[in-house]
Amino acid sequence: MVSRGLRQALIVMRKELKDSLRDRRALFSIAFSIVIGPVLIGFMMNRVADRQREAENVEIPVAGQEHAPAFVEWLRQQAGVTVTKGPLRAEQAVRDGMYDVVVVIADDYGEKFQESRPATVRIVADTSRNAARPTHERVRALLQRYSAEVGALRLVARGVSPAGVQPLRLEEIEISTAQQRAAQVLSFIPMFIILAAFVGGMSIATDSTAGERERGSLEALLVNPAPRMALVAGKCVAAALLAMTAVILTTTLSANIPRFLPLQDMGIRFRIGREEFVGVLAAMLPMCLFSASLQAAVSTLARSFKEAQSYMGVLVLLPMLPGMISAVSTLGQDPWMYLVPVLGQHVLVMGVLGGRPEEAWAFTVAGLIAVLSAALLIRTMTTLFKIERIVFGR
Amino acid sequence: MIRVEGLRKRFGTVQAVQNVTFDARDGSITGLLGPNGAGKTTTLRMLYGVMKPDAGQILVDDVDAMASPQDAQTHLGVLPDGSGLYPRLTAREHIHYFGELHGLTGVRLRDRTEELLQMLDMHAIADRRTGGFSHGERTKVAIARALVHGPRNVLLDEPTNGLDVMSTRAVRTIVRRLRASGHCVVFSSHVMQEVSALCDSIVVIARGQVVARGTPDELRRQTGHENLEDAFVALAGAELISEEPW
Q: Nearest by CB to A224, which of B71, B102, B142?
């Protein structure tokens, strides 16, 4: 009896997959959801790389160049630096966004420099603008270096070793801002992968439940001597298989992003190697069973195909939640999170891609919870399929 | 062979079926005749196990359909009311799908499919997707998939509803052929001519009750009307239809 039910579930699954693979509109939306994530991420990464390049080849507008010709000459000689004429009203120009950074040399620069008193050089910048930050840092470092070099020369001129006034030798180990931004971009990947699972399973989940009822083929199907559980399970597993396919393809595409972008040259570490790939799938594949069953159960409860589709639109927001929360506040890695389907998977995938994969028990717990929730949903749907009001519509 | 006794079903405050009893013999066509909303579809739905009766008994070839509905379903071929198809599957795939769910595989399934395509004269449309089918073609597919497991008992809920003359004749031919090969056919309709032309025995249902049973001749005699339509009107209740002659 059990093996007969299993065989019938497989028959239903095969039919739903065949049916849905002929649905061009559904396939198009799945393909779109697979491609959109990696493409957006690639685009954003490219922007990060561009900015990094911009910061290296910096153009510095300097106002009041006539007061410090030696300093301007030194600046010009630095690699990657172009000095241009600065605007008259530097602050206004930066505020208006015409320049990221403007260097202003004070009128009394020459006088004070001659007297070996601190001469004023202003860096006008709006550091709330992300784009301005790398340039600003570059300019600041350049000015500090000039200041230190001139200071050392003055000491040497007075017969003092510059080493004496340098009690500390600073060594910066730079975790560059470009890498931070790359990490920020990468934090979208788990969201896109989970999104692919939801969009992938959507068409079968709605079409085989609310759609089947609306077409009037459900009644004929239920006349077959098959346990309701077999029919429901076949439909849910078919939806889950499409969701899994979408997840695998999205992850594969994401893994290939470095091929198309010169990220390595920019010093951005991004790699989905074989281990990361396996890790992502280990986290995500069980969740596909959950997401597909959830979509099918919700569609079964919907009064019409259209209503089911609008519920799907709301459900698709679910995978966005962890991503949105982590954008405002830091989403930790508390163990309780593994007990919540979708959230658990988000945390797991984040860990894998961040190079700090969780331990095996976390994968096991999150996977088990997802599969058990899916089983519970399938049981609930089986009951729903016995309620006349639901089978025949309301 | 189908036996129905004291079948009852209530939806909320509406008593849709109240005490329906009839027999349908093998090798004969039994017509369920009644106006729209009389309870024909509900009665059939309880027969083929998608609705649970509040009371009564259903025997399908001596299987208690309420105790073991799936067992009963293996003995039943059903064309439900307004049965829909999968527009992206071909006619042949529809027959295969239901055949497989009934446990048919391989050569047996292929042979049975061929047999049905032959019997229903469907070879020209067998491998086309049903999305663009006419109503008549869709009905043929629905009948074919209902018969794929060679059931002894066949339940057809308004099979000719909305069909054109040619398709209606085709369906009648199928029904007669099923009788000739010894099947028990139960056929519901609200069209008198259809039922009187086709059925060996008629069960008239009105307001959820069996108001008369018998052969067409017996019904005429019972009501004293020569015309079966008048007999039906008399049985179904005057308030339902009162058509003055003009």
A: B102
On whether both A231 and A124 belong to a single domain, the answer is no
* Closest residue in chain A to residue B68, using alpha carbons only: A225
| Helix, coil or strand: residue B5 | strand
Interchain contact B93–A (C-beta under 8 A): yes
B85 touches chain A (CB under 8 A): yes
Nearest CA distance, A225 vs chain B (angstrom)? 5
**Cβ atoms < 10 Å from Cβ of A245:** 18
| A217 vs B contacts (CB less than 8 Å) | 83-86
d(CA B69, CA B58): 10
A196 residue type, one letter: A
- Same domain as B209, residue B114: no
**8 Å CB contact between B200 and B215:** yes
Cβ partners under 8 Å of residue A278, min gap 6: none
- The enclosing domain of A103 has a CATH number of 3.40.1710
Structure tokens at A253: 């595409």
What single string gives the DSSP state of each residue in A56-102?
A: HSEEEEEE-GGG-HHHHHHHHHSTTEEEEEPPSSHHHHHHTTS-SEE
| Gap between the Cα atoms of B206 and B211, Å rounded | 7
Nearest-by-CA chain B residue for A13: B97
Measured in angstroms, the CA of B83 and the nearest CA of chain A are apart by 5
Q: B85 and A215 in contact by Cβ < 8 A?
A: yes
For A14-43, the pLDDT digits (tens) are 999 999 999 998 899 889 888 888 888 888
Chain A residues within 8 angstroms (CB to CB) of chain B: 4, 7-8, 11-12, 15, 18-19, 22-23, 215-217, 219-220, 222-227, 388, 391
Nearest residue to A135 via CA among A147, A146, A145, A123: A123
CA distance A83 to A137: 16
Q: Which residues of B touch A220 (CB under 8 A)?
A: 78-80, 83-84, 98, 142, 145-146
Whether residues B44 and B116 share a domain: the answer is no
Does residue B145 carry a pLDDT above 90?
A: yes
Enumerate the β-bridge partners of residue B157. Answer: B188
- Which residues of chain B lie closer than 8 angstroms to A8, CB-CB? 101
| Closest of A131, A144, A122 to residue A61, by C-alpha | A122
Burial class (CB in 10 A: 0-12, 13-18, 19+), A80: exposed
Final residue of a domain: which of A148, A177, A206?
A177
pLDDT in tens, A280-338: 999 999 999 999 999 999 999 998 999 999 999 999 888 888 777 766 666 666 788 88
Query: For residue A315, what is the enclosing H or E element?
Result: helix A305-315
Query: How far apart are the CA of B110 and the nearest CA of chain A, in angstroms?
Result: 16
CA distance A253 to chain B (A): 30
Q: Does A182 map to a domain?
A: no
What's the pLDDT at B154?
Answer: 95
* Domain containing residue B143: 84-150
For A100, the domain range is 57-177
Q: Are residues A167 and A203 in the same domain?
A: no
User: What length is written for chain A?
Assistant: 394
- Residue B246 pLDDT class (50, 70, 90 cuts): very low
- Give the distance from residue B22's alpha carbon to the nearest chain A alpha carbon, in angstroms: 21
Quickly count: other Cβ atoms within 10 Å of residue B237's Cβ: 12
For the ranges A171-175, B80-84, B240-244, the maximum mean pLDDT occurs at B80-84
